[in-house]
Amino acid sequence: MASAQQALAASATPARPPTAAVRPGRGRDSVKAWPVVDRIAFGLCWAVGIGLCLVTAAIVLFMAVKGVAYLKPSLLIEHPSPSQDQAGSGGFLDPIEGTLLLTAVGIAIAAPVGVGLAIWMSEYQRPAWLARAVESGVEMISGAPSVLLAMFGLVLFARPALAFLSQTSAGGSVYGKSFLTAGAMMSLIALPLVVASTREALLQVPAHVREASYALGKTKATTIRKVLLPSVRPSIASGVTLGIGRIVGDTAIVVILLGATIRTEGAGGAPVLSVLRGTGGTLTSYVRYNSPAGEGNAHEKAYAAAFVLLLMVLGLNLLVMRFSSGEATGKLGRMRMGKPGRMRVVGILPWTR
Amino acid sequence: MHQAPASTGSPVGRPGAALRRIFARGAGPAERRTEWMLRTLAAGVLVVIAGMAITVFSKAWPSFAHNGLAWFGGGGDVDTQLREMINGPKDPAHYVYQFKAWPLIWATILTSGLAVVLGMVVSIFAAVFIVEFAPAQVRRAIDPVIRLLAGVPSVVYGLVGILAIAPWVEHNLISTGRKRSVEYVVQLTGANLSVAILILTVMIVPIMVAIVVSALETVPASWTEGSAALGVNRWRTTWRVSLRTARPAIVAAAVLATARALGESIMLSMVSGSRGFSPNPLDGVTFFFEPVRPLAATIIDYIDSITVVPVEQTLYAMAAVLLVSCALLSLAGWAAKQPVKRYGIRA
Amino acid sequence: MRTTRTLTLSLIAVLMLAPPATAGAKALLIDGSTSIFPLMTQLASAYHKATKQPTPKVGQGTSDAGVNDVNSGRVDIGDVSRDPIIGSDPKGLVFTKLARDGVCMITNPKNPLGNLNQETVQAIFTGNVREWSEVPGSKMTGPIDLVDRIASSGTQDAFQNIFLGPNLKISKSAEEEESNGLVQNKVKVDEHAIGFVSFAFTSGVNAVGYQGIPCTLQNAKSGQYQGVRNFWMVTKGVPRGAAKKYIEWVTSSKNATARKIINSEWIAIH
After folding, report:
1. Closest Cβ–Cβ partner in C69, C71, C176 for B79
2. Is B40 within a domain?
């Protein structure tokens, strides 16, 4: 199953050029000469391919048309109105802040843990049973529904020991829903993406890079910190961005663990901590609330918020593409392409500067 | 289950045995501390994951214990049963536990299964198009398209479904006569099985296409060249050689897509009809217009009533079923790839 | 290196110590009926403005969820829009009456039904009458789309008791919505729909009269309109502490602000 993750992570990087392959030439193999069945299949392939592009274009255009029609700049800077009926005045500043805050909390946990896990899985792997178990565990998480993670969070964070992460009612029971708790569960969603991306890149660092470092007397920890990590930075960045994209798009955990309120409701008086321990909403829960499946009764605002969400995802996608193209031409790319000359490689290694 | 790919033959991987001996002997305290810290981190993540499984199962146990295997059976209306639980007596000795989840399980099988089947057909043709037949510019354009489709949040799909697709289906495809034919049992609206399957397919196709394309590209060129040298045309080469070789990847793609479809809760709760109804295939075309509610969507719909203890245990039982299905899928995917590993295919 | 490490450690220490420091400012947690939700949110903000206590946090999840949350201690006050059910509600709960509220039947604006009498209401909602052409006073044709509430709704309890009586139940084929807002949504978009909501949710739809009396706030206040039920606040045992202060503020007969809020769309009783 790791290969599936690797394949997904690899699809973010440009495919390696076929090794001196010559695909069958087009001139000699005219479609008109094929048997009927094959021609039908050929037509189907084209139809499906173009159809896929058309469906994507339809979705994007539809959202763009509706979004541009309903999105006013005032919506982005006004707080939502406190009443249940959102059709009147008020924007969605709180949901935007909620999305950013939740993503920040989630990725702040997922990035270090994910990179650490990837390093351990590719460099140490001892004891072997633990390595296998962790690999299976991460794969299980990547396939687990977010509803499941949210329900686990409900049980976990209602424990009195973790009461500091959310608020407590005067009756003594722990509420369990806050940005911190939802962020913790969101980090589990982003974790497999960071781990897969980083691990894939670490495994592709050539052995001679590590060996050169050890030959110069550096310990393993220093090698990892000063040589390997900087060289896989683009992969870490692309994995983190993929994780951010997944967090931004998730709704189930927000609905279950964040309270899904329209406005950010702080808990207590401390400046930053009250927001983190309080409930709130994100763009995803706001869209759901204003759709016919929720009570906001404001379809135009739902379209506008969904359009903003789509723009965020598009932006993140472009970032990932930029990171992965940087990877091919950056330090690691040059090492991988096997540029001749030891001097050249030594010049590239960062810690020799 | 997967070791470092020393078998691929490329110059990658961890330091050799000699270096390992050096470190085993001379690893300093800082070195051991790093390894110890990272190992604890890994063990910690494992503990969290195991804790999740244990928590879900322990919370779900009473519901299974009181119902036995009848939990998976049919009989009775799921919403009525949940209503009895909510309105039932509140002391632990007399909780109402009866629950027969078959309509929900059937709905899950229908939506996920049909979506994956449809999606696989579409993905294979799309992947072949991308790898073989697409001109270079189209190829360059399609990559970002696939990635964009994969990244669209499920709530946006749900919004488009419930505001654009469901009303269209209701006005154009569901005639009044069809409505009347089943009105004693269920009300037909635009939110039904067909819309759910359609949108779910669109959601899982990008995942499958990405994996199959990646696999088709790693088919050794000598194999396809050999086939071309024998005079086989491009389509047949792809069908008989490349796709066969990519079979483990197709299986992996199907497993991944099924796991995604099983776990989809928000979009399905918005467009699939929100009624625990068991569609009857014998209804003919009306079968596709009947409302359904898969397991994950049921959890989301009833999450507000989770403070009622029997309801909480039933919802965790549903989550446990989802967890076991995903784990089994993972296992099945791994087992399906085993026979082909000996050919050294990077599957 | 050392300075960054010290800085990080001190930051973590500050964050760890901060929670106990803010533990004093606990807000009341209120949850329950979706009908009471609009009223309770307004009362909560007015309470905060008047007394400077932290604004109580109001959620919604139907009346039965409110009862269960209060019973298990997850919230301090539960909102319940139906009368207590002896034998089914947990023991030890104390119900304090908050206000009274009207329940209206609603139809789509394209189906401006003026009035329904009891037999027709019972026939429609039990599923005996399925076509709009058979409903007197309706110019709509086509099948009737019934919109119901989910089981834990207090409004559904109230509707069944008042309009249908103890022996009849709403048809099983009806669509069940989780809240008043969703019923209102559904009736707005479906021209064949008919449902029932709390009075505060009748904007944008046609409110149907009952037994010849239109469903307006005035008629509900005067007692002519029969579809009126109670709003209750539920606590575990006699109200204490912050909950007691809040309930006393809301139900005080000298509190003109609260009475004005309640009288806007509901019926004040204190």
Report:
1. C176
2. no
